[in-house]
Amino acid sequence: MLTVAEAQTRVSDLVAQAKKAGADAADGLYVCNESTAVSVRLGALEDVERSEGETIGLRLFVGRRSASVSSSDLSAEALATLVDRAVAMAKEAPEDAYAGLAPEDRLLRGDAPSVDGDDATGVPPEELRARALIAEEAARAVSGVTNSEGASASHGRTIIALATSHGFTGGYATSGHGCSASVIAGEGGAMQRDYAHRSARHLADLEGAEAIGRRAGERTVARLNPAKLPSGAMPILFDPRVGASLLGHLAGAITGSSIARKTSFLLDALETEVFARGITIVDDPLRARGLGSKPFDGEGLPTARRALIADGVLTGWLLDSASARQLGLQPTGNAQRGVGGPPGAGTTNLYMEAGSLSPAELMKDVKRGLYVTELIGQGVNPVTGDYSRGAAGFMIEDGEIGAAVAEITIAGNLKDMFRAVVPADDLKFERATDVPTIRIDGMTVAGA
Fold it and tell me: 175: which of 161, 319, 401, 443 lies 20 to 30 Å off by Cα?
């Protein structure tokens, strides 16, 4: 694994080679990942995985024609061949009026801000094994758990470097630590499974393995003996671990490519009320130790905190340079990319701000409703916003969580659902996309 400085030099040299070979413009991206993961099951070691790989990608332009190539061989000979192949490919590619590097005057200049994403802490396999064993033991200790799908613990580190031919060079490192457990309760056809998982950039921020395992066991046992839920329209509360998917649908609908192609259900929603007044949804790429934090985007533009929804109003799109040109706008610092192709646009640390009511207060007036803890399938139409997904969770009866329910379908339209969202006050930053418990009235539930 190269250091950040060495990686920056490597991509800068590759971009310079591309220019010498006839490219009018180019950028290069280096990514190196190393990781170790240890899995256990029923108290015994099941697997140890160790991987390390580095890849370098080159995108170059000959006029309005472009090509992207990548290689895991970083030798001088391989990179020289890579450049020649990319130039030849670009000359044969079709012209694209919107292709090109990011605007030079918008590039990040000076030192990149720190997002404190790397704790530089190595974790030996024996420590990962011990953590996984603790998690599984805690899960299996919960009364009612009958079997285990296993537990795991992992550690990894990533180096990223980006260089462009018009003046940007930058790089950074991130670390990652994770722990999970998945167990089974019940017997035969009545068996249920659930899991718990946590990730963190710094080991010091990772939740304890015993707590993770215990939560996996408790979640699983709570799902036993699911009852039948009558069909009808009713209030639905989404647990934070599944409610975050609603923000994923929002992000997909406001990316520049969706708007440029006119394939978004929010196509005409800019600067209108998409959510109720009081709702704020933020993308914050500079949050210290955030799972999605980064000091610059995939094109070398500075990143910044943005309220995508401010007091219910959609404030703007997520734009990389190509989609921005197509829409006659400026890129927003949301470009994302891999080594093998052009950038797209996306979010980093996306979250909905908390409301003022506790989850208990949010469901207090619900006579009959549904608390969703699992969503199944991908039944969402990004063009119309029609939403229909399998679900499991718990009944809400007279303001209290009741019996488990399964094999149900919830349906609505995302436009109506967004307008009806009411957030609770229990927001926690645990994922790259976070929401508090949220309530949506008026959705249709198809049960027994």
Answer: 319
